[in-house]
Amino acid sequence: MFGIAGYHPVATDTVAETLSAHGPKLRALVGRRLESVLGLCFTVDGQWCSTQPLILRFAGTRLEIVFDGFDQLYLSWNTIDTDVSIDTRDQDDPEMELAWGDPSRPELDAVLGSEVRQVSVLENDFHLDLVDGRRTRSWMLAGLELVFGNGRTLQLYNVFSETTLELDTPDSDRRRRTAA
Question: Could you tell me the pTM of the whole model?
């Protein structure tokens, strides 16, 4: 998947599925420090490619996260070997090679070295106005929220198949379902 040898994440598209498949491991992040972050970066300009996995390394474990589609969350744990080169032959632009590197994001820098205090799975309130005038409403899987001991909160969520990062968004209208 994504040209990454051995990478086989578990895809979920509801909070219940995410908590069922990953709840114990998400809860186990509590009390661990975020030691480093790696992302797939374009070799041309070094910028992080937010449609590819982001690896958050905590003491003793690595959380590998990526989003796809409208509401799919792909999580895996300790599966990506960052020493193996990325196969980019099937990408839209094979000239844009990818390599693991520091995603250089201020949102991540603000929480590096901090201990996780709480983990939540996020949902968005989704409304759809139908042609006949009716309105449907549902909660859709949005991403993860990590609350750190330094008082900062990091949200990792999906915007059209891209991993988006936000720091300290208490007024977010996303609903939180606490994993830990």
Answer: 0.85
Long-range pairs for 40-46 at CB < 8 Å and ≥24 separation?
40/2, 40/86, 40/98, 40/99, 40/100, 40/101, 41/98, 41/99, 41/100, 41/101, 41/102, 41/103, 42/96, 42/97, 42/98, 43/96, 43/97, 43/98, 43/99, 44/96, 44/97, 46/101, 46/104
Distance CA 155, CA 143 (A): 7
Return all residues near 45 (Cβ < 8 A) that are at least 6 apart.
none
In tens, the pLDDT along 8-37 reads: 899 998 888 999 999 999 999 999 999 999
What is the DSSP track for 63-100? EEEEEETTTEEEEEES---TTSPP--TTSS-TTS-EEE
